[in-house]
Amino acid sequence: MTPPPPPRQRAGRNLPAAIAVGVSLVAVLAVGLLLIDWVFVLLVAVGLSLGAWEVCGAVARLGMRPARIPVVVGTALIVLVTYLSPALPTTLGSTGVMLAVIGLTMIAALVWRMPQGPDGFVRDAASSLFVIAYVPLLGSFASLMIAHPDGPERVLTFVLIVVAGDLFGYAVGLPFGKHQMSPTISPKKSWEGFAGSLVGGMLVGVICSIWLLDSRWWVGLVLGVALVLVGVCGDLVESLIKRDVGIKDMSSILPGHGGVMDRLDSLLLAAPVAWVLTTLLVPPVA
């Protein structure tokens, strides 16, 4: 007799596997951030490189040919060099170094495509530049945050708020969600779940602001609202990409979650906002 398939919830995921993988990822990131921050940076470099590989594969379904090798290699270098920039013999600063490596990655992607001739060059080049802007450019702001003296605490706050928004939104939306937020993009997202995400993000934001950032409680409220809002947008953006391409998940590398990009979508769009707000609102450590 064929064994029954693992139980699946209304949200279409293997819930026990999803929870186990999610908790494990957050735990590893937290340990890496608080104990050995370069471990976190390596994980980010690997994660974003895998995400860039997945997005390259996705857009290839539309007939585009992104320069996958330069994009993936450049993604890892953008993260690593940005993190190492304070120790480099340059006056560019972390932001300048990040932009320089991004620019070089774009040049490499364009040159990589040149030998294949003019047919479809604009289409293929646009797909490469889209992946670079979407994955390593947005994700590298986490490296900028960690360059601060209290960088690990800033990044952990950013990650915990976004993750809390996802978890609270799922916990509230699954049993109580009745009003669809965006039926044509993500039918399972509800306004009730969004309200839960806001509450969870603000709650975790206040806690992190006080205990991790040694800042004022209202800073946590601002971070919570802003990061949840843009995190939801990040989820919807990836849903638009997948619907355009015609796939459910970017890959199946993470049990219960799908691909790496299915976990990074909210974090990617939230990273630049987190960097801006923590830079403006959280005083630097003396």
Q: Strand sequence of the main sheet, in spatial order?
A: 1-2
Number of strands: 2
Order of helices and strands: HHHHHHHEEHHH
The first-to-last residue Cα distance is 67 Å
Return Rg in Å: 19 Å
Indicate the percent of residues in helices. Answer: over 70%
Largest sheet: 2 strands, antiparallel
**Number of DSSP helices?**
10
Question: What does the secondary structure layout of this molecule look like, with pairings?
Answer:
Elements: H1 15-35, H2 37-60, H3 68-84, H4 93-113, H5 121-139, H6 141-146, H7 151-176, E1 180-182, E2 186-190, H8 191-211, H9 217-245, H10 261-281
Antiparallel strand pairs: 1-2
Keywords: Cell membrane, Lipid biosynthesis, Lipid metabolism, Membrane, Nucleotidyltransferase, Phospholipid biosynthesis, Phospholipid metabolism, Transferase, Transmembrane, Transmembrane helix
Enzyme class: transferase
Pathway: Phospholipid metabolism; CDP-diacylglycerol biosynthesis; CDP-diacylglycerol from sn-glycerol 3-phosphate: step 3/3; Lipid metabolism
Would you write up a description of this structure?
The chain has helices spanning 15-35, 37-60, 68-84, 93-113, 121-139, 141-146, 151-176, 191-211, 217-245, 261-281, and strands at 180-182, 186-190. It has 286 residues and is mostly helical. The chain folds into 2 domains: 28-147, no CATH class; 149-285, no CATH class. The chain has a two-stranded antiparallel ribbon.
Could you give a short description of this structure?
It catalyses: a 1,2-diacyl-sn-glycero-3-phosphate + CTP + H(+) = a CDP-1,2-diacyl-sn-glycerol + diphosphate. InterPro entries: PC_trans. This protein has 286 residues and is an all-alpha fold.
